[in-house]
Design brief:
By secondary structure, the chain is an alpha/beta fold. It is built from 21 helices and 25 strands. It is globular, with a radius of gyration of 25 Å.
């Protein structure tokens, strides 16, 4: 069904409703209207990295891990698998009359906020710190979720609009102040691409204010930018409870009914929460009109029509339950987990290990046997989890495996009869008895995530207070380094972590595994032994733990991310080692069109292992009218090469990201020199040193 037909169907249905019925449909728990043969519908569904909160489903690596693949096609394949499982579950749910929360097809993903501060707890839900990478992965994810058929397979929703990335503790009343330059250069491009390039069905407003206006009652964001400038045709939904915040915390409206009224009139069509129950009072007092209610309902019913809800022959009804948790999706899940992991250090090519040469292997650390360390947040339930310890057991099948927690995740209690928190000596014992120790450190959603509503020494309501590991794990890691020569660190967390000088220097290898999904333990073990080859790249900058980062409340991009950093980081954006080497040559500009420049480069695998390379194109440009990024990612491609193999890789360079952004937010052609760089990393000095080669460049 095309959009025009869906809009007409929506108008026909809504025209038959009373004002009270229309208002009832503007809450995420939309009741049935039996006289019109309209079923109840619950709009709240989650699918950040798999169908979430609705029972068994494939749990893929969290979004930040998918971003580390730097692979648009792979992300689209994952999203397509998610929407297939969504339809399989939906088809069975309605067969049995279950239309409850998390059982629908309107998914509130992806989170495309910019991960500008590595302390932010929800950064794990995003595609990283870069607007190009976030924009293009968002388009891939949305297209995978929504499909390319006559009807939506499911719908995506770009969130949280806009300028939203912490702090979690004050998000309900916080005012994010951002200049127009930062808005249009960094915070808005991904939403623009979601609307203009992917036709995303929904946009979710953030909790906070942006430049004084609550995001769910912002004329600037909702009317001027989204509807007028970008011609958005989908539905706008509040974050859950955000309309209440307009009254309670932002003090933007004096009563709840006035908060509901201003949100609706500004363009928030759907309320996640209970606040739109006050629309009845607002309607009776003429704070809102029948036209306001009708317009919102028509936006929502257009989406329901596009999902095929009102068709006699429901689309995608042939997707059977066997598609859920399928072997095909498990294989895809393992592949994505392998490609998401970033090899940060590999001293003297210590990895991959010959598993036959290690008779005793220790797996030590609080995340060694943890399911939580695989899942991240916004998760479903897998039918099978392979923890890091499980994965090592499977791969090192002929070795003696010692497993020990060694410490609690973030607290230390020396005398606890039921908690077993103080176990450093057990970890040291396992390590001292083994030929190699795999140290499993990191975080999980109990201390890193969305508004956890509690704080401790390490975190505040889900945001990290430090870029170092929690002190308990630092103590364990340093103790292990004292008793074990051969240490491999596997970090599972949603952001950047500094292990500290002692551990970082002692470890033979460091693997950053993110929250790698249900099969992440197997992926890590296969990578350690070379059954998989590392190819992930860092989607955000890793800072030293003692670096002074601007306050999280400061939304200026000055000194933030690789694009504006002023000193050398711990690990740069776009970095990741491989077991093999790649040689770049013959960089050419093939064509230069209005929006896209086509380039090519020859890539040869000159090492001893088969591998996959994530080719990256960066632009460096200057403009006399404004400041410009140090470098700007503007093209990516993935190429798989057997050892000795050479291929010509063609890439599309997105010229939207080779524009200077002026103080008024306008994008213009730079008036200075433009240089393109291509390679397997960013063209900064640290990347050259870590990777051992320079990028190729071309002037344009």
């Amino acid at each position: 069904m095309d959009l025009v037909k869906a809009q007409q169907k929506a108008k026909e249905l809504v025209a038959q409703m009373t004002a009270e019925e229309k208002m009832s449909q503007l809450l995420y728990t939309s009741p049935a209207i039996e006289r019109l043969n309209i079923n109840e519908y619950n709009w709240w569904n989650e699918a950040s990295h798999g169908v979430a909160r609705a029972g068994v489903a494939t749990v893929f690596p969290h979004a930040i891990g998918m971003a580390a693949t730097f692979d648009k096609d792979l992300v689209k394949t994952v999203a397509d698998a998610i929407s297939t499982e969504a339809r399989a579950k939906y088809n069975k749910s309605i067969e049995f009359g279950d239309r409850d929360i998390y059982k629908g097809l309107t998914y509130w993903a992806p989170n495309i906020n910019i991960f500008r501060d590595p302390r932010w707890g929800r950064g794990q839900e995003t595609f990283g710190e870069d607007p190009y990478l976030t924009s293009h992965l968002a388009v891939s994810f949305i297209r995978g979720i929504q499909g390319d058929g006559e009807f939506y397979k499911a719908t995506a929703c770009a969130k949280h609009f806009a300028v939203h990335s912490g702090p979690e503790k004050t998000r309900h009343g916080f005012d994010a102040i951002a200049s127009k330059k930062d808005m249009y250069e960094t915070y808005l491009p991904a939403f623009y691409y979601a609307v203009k390039k992917a036709d995303v069905a929904g946009v979710m407003g953030a909790y906070n204010r942006t430049n004084g206006e609550p995001c769910c009652a912002s004329k600037t964001l909702m009317q001027d930018i989204l509807r007028k400038d970008w011609q958005f045709k989908g539905y706008y939904v509040s974050d859950c409870g955000a309309v209440r915040d307009i009254w309670e915390f932002h003090k933007f409206a004096p009563t709840m009914k006035e908060a509901a009224a201003v949100s609706l009139k500004t363009g928030c069509n759907l309320n996640c929460g209970e606040s739109y129950k006050y629309l009845t009072d607002a309607y009776e007092e003429d704070l809102i009109s029948d036209d306001d209610i009708t317009e919102a309902a028509e936006y929502l019913y257009t989406i329901r029509a596009m999902l095929g809800e009102f068709e006699e022959d429901r689309p995608y009804s042939d997707i059977g339950y066997e598609k859920l948790d399928s072997e095909e999706n498990k294989a895809l899940n393992l592949k994505v987990a392998e490609e998401s992991m970033v090899l940060l250090k590999n001293e003297n090519n210590y990895l991959p290990l010959n598993k036959k040469a290690f008779k005793k292997v220790a797996v030590v650390g609080p995340n060694s046997m943890s399911h939580l360390a695989l899942e991240g947040n916004y998760f479903g339930h897998a039918s099978e989890y392979i923890t890091l310890a499980d994965g090592v057991r499977r791969v090192f099948s002929d070795s003696k495996i010692f497993v020990a927690d060694g410490s609690h995740l973030c607290s230390e209690v020396k005398s606890s009869w039921d908690g077993f928190e103080y176990l450093y000596s057990e970890g040291m014992a396992a390590a001292s008895e083994s030929d190699v120790t795999i140290l499993c450190l990191g975080l999980d959603r109990t201390i890193e995530g969305e508004d956890t509503n509690h704080s401790n020494e390490f975190s505040s309501c889900g945001d990290k207070n430090t870029l170092y590991l929690p002190s308990t794990q630092m103590k364990l890691a340093e103790a292990i380094c004292d008793v074990a020569e051969n240490v491999i660190v596997v970090l599972t967390c949603g952001s950047a972590i500094d292990l500290g000088d002692k551990v970082r220097k002692h470890a033979k290898a460091i693997i950053h595994a993110w929250y790698p999904g249900a099969l992440g333990g197997l992926a890590a073990a296969k990578l350690i032994t070379g059954e998989a080859s590392p190819c992930g790249k860092t989607p955000l900058t890793f800072y030293y733990g003692n670096k002074e980062i601007p306050s999280m409340e400061d939304y200026s991009m000055k000194s933030r991310t690789y694009r504006f950093i002023e000193d050398e980081p711990l690990y740069p954006f776009g970095f990741g080692l491989s077991y093999t080497e790649f040689d770049y040559s013959n960089f050419k500009i093939l064509s230069d069109e209005s929006d896209v420049m086509k380039v090519s480069v020859e890539v040869k695998n000159t090492g001893s292992f088969d591998g996959k390379e994530k080719v990256q194109v960066y632009a460096q440009f200057t403009d006399s009218r404004t400041s410009t990024p140090n470098y700007q990612l503007c093209g990516t491609a993935s190429v798989e090469l057997r050892k000795g193999e050479c291929k010509t890789v063609e890439l599309e360079v997105d010229k939207f990201f080779i524009k200077a952004v002026l103080e008024d937010g306008s994008r213009v052609e730079p008036d200075g020199k433009i240089t393109l760089f291509v390679g397997g990393h960013q063209p900064d000095e640290l990347s050259k040193k870590l990777c051992g080669y320079d990028c190729l460049k071309a002037e344009i």
